[in-house]
Structures are given as C-alpha cells and as structure tokens.
C-alpha cells in the first residue's frame, strides 16, 4: 500500500523516485537521518533529535535553511502523520541528502529533506517479557572519529551486523569499534549492569549519540539509578548481570543472551520503569 512522503516542501507518493544516478547521497552516502516516534501528537525527546540533526548537518557542511527550526520540523511531521492516517503511534524517518555532484564539489550544500511515516503497534513501546538474543559481529568495525556519534547514511557496519544477526537467528548483533571494544548494536546503544551499576560506552568510543541513551544519562542520578560511562570489552559482557539496548523507537529492550551468556531481566525492568516507561505512555 502506497503512502505519502514529504520531500523538499511537497507531499508525494512514497514510490516516487527521489535520488538519481548522480546523487551524492546514492553514490557516497552523503547525508544524515533521524528516527523518531510520533505519540499522540508529541515526539518524545524531540529536542534531542533536533539538536543531533542540526549538529550533524553542521559537521557535514550542510547549510541549514533559515526557516528550519523545531516548530517547522514538528509541523511537517504532524502533517505527514495526519495525511497518512498513522495516528496515534507512528515511526518517523527523517533524511537529509546532498544533491548531485562529485566528491570535490564544495558548492552543493543544500540539505534535501525527506520524511516518511509508518504505523507503530502499541506493544512496540511496552515492556517485553521476552528478551533479545544477541551475539558479536566482528567483520566490520565502527570508526572512532568526528562523525561517529552522528546518524550518517554511511551505515555499512551496522547493516552487516544486522545481516549476520538475521543469518544466525539473533535479534541483534553488537559491533566493536576500531580499538576492539564494544561500541553499540546494529540499531541501538547498549548498557550493561555490573557491580550494581549500569555502564555504557562513552561517546569517545564511537557510538551514536542516542536520544534515549542521553535521557538515561541525564536523568539517572535524580532518580537514584547508578549509571556511568565506561569503555567495555567483549569479555566484560560475560561478567555482567544484565544488558539492555536502547533506541528511540523501541525505547529499552532487555537482552536475554549474548552468545552463551544469559542475563537476568530484573535490573533491566527497574531501569525501564524508572527512566524509560515515562517516555512510552
């Protein structure tokens, strides 16, 4: 079934061809994306999404149009969700693409904007009784560099990790960074529970600057939840009591296994109830 997408100020059927053969986005992955949730007329952690998007655009040299602000983006998302009939819950994908040109074309900095929406089942946002089965992807590694924390269209390491997860009947796979330490999963940030506190790789280890990750770090102390940023080796996961994966769409999912290691869900449920459930309801 065809739906509408938003592209550079207009709504089109989502089967419309957006990028041609000369597109820098198609040729080189030159762009960014955001994944958000529309929930009963609001977007949880919307300010975090907008800040990350605009920061990424600045890093990649896009020229932000003067009318692009929080309210402008939110209104376009509202119109898209309404036109597609995707209330009350929807997944939103916002993409920024550069136009045609060669790698050395420094003049083409206009951000072409695409937005899509899909209906999102309510159970996606609830505590899941069944945990995720995960493993370690070792073919591709995540670079530790100046754009590692952005959601760029250069998605190959995560794509390869997701493909391996599917082929091995895992729900997700963890990625290493180029230093050989745990970075993130193919679609989420990771937290592990060790010695009565939650640990997550710092941004200097190369993970995406996730919005739920940021929310947990900024609200943990006031809610009495011990959380710390710390580099993690794969071996640390085998000494952990619990592990969770976090992203904007699913919020928080507890991990039941990493390879042959099995985890409890009790610390994860406490973390979910204290910090993440308020984003879901």
TrEMBL record:
Q: What is its EC number?
A: 2.6.1.42
Which species does the entry assign this protein to?
Flavihumibacter petaseus NBRC 106054
Under InterPro entries, the record lists: Aminotrans_IV, Aminotransferase-like, BCAT-like_C, BCAT-like_N, Class-IV_PLP-Dep_Aminotrnsfr
**Listed name of the protein:** branched-chain-amino-acid transaminase
Which family is this protein grouped under? Belongs to the class-IV pyridoxal-phosphate-dependent aminotransferase family.
UniProt pathway = Amino-acid biosynthesis; L-valine biosynthesis; L-valine from pyruvate: step 4/4; Amino-acid biosynthesis; L-leucine biosynthesis; L-leucine from 3-methyl-2-oxobutanoate: step 4/4; Amino-acid biosynthesis; L-isoleucine biosynthesis; L-isoleucine from 2-oxobutanoate: step 4/4
Q: Which reaction does it catalyse?
A: L-valine + 2-oxoglutarate = 3-methyl-2-oxobutanoate + L-glutamate; L-leucine + 2-oxoglutarate = 4-methyl-2-oxopentanoate + L-glutamate; L-isoleucine + 2-oxoglutarate = (S)-3-methyl-2-oxopentanoate + L-glutamate
What molecular functions are annotated in GO for this chain?
Answer: branched-chain-amino-acid transaminase activity
